[in-house]
Write a structure and sequence with these properties.
Elements (H helix, E strand, L loop, with lengths): L1 H20 L4 H37 L1 H12 L16
Length: about 90
């Protein structure tokens, strides 16, 4: 009877060791949950950025106002009837 209790105690100790220190242990599970939360947040940020870029692409395809605005600010476009003034700030 003693050897059965000893064997069960040894089995319990082995299972506890695997639960706390082995592969798939509780600390590993907590770490995985943490990294999963971080990845979900990164995915949400990336999805928001992708949505904004898709809206900008659609706006550039459909409307001339967005295209003109980009040409003005990025390429320095001016119309024929406009006068260009460059203001230089001195420190």
């Amino acid at each position: 009877m003693r050897w059965v209790i000893g064997a069960l105690a040894l089995l319990l100790a082995l299972l506890q060791f695997q639960l706390w220190f082995g592969p798939g242990s509780v600390p590993t599970l907590i770490e995985l949950h943490s990294s999963l939360d971080e990845q979900r947040q990164a995915n949400e940020r990336a999805q928001a950025r992708n949505d904004a870029l898709a809206a900008e692409v659609e706006d550039l395809k459909e409307g001339l106002d967005a295209l003109e605005e980009r040409a003005r600010y990025q390429l320095g476009m001016i119309r024929e009837d406009e006068t260009f003034y460059q203001v230089i700030e001195e420190d």
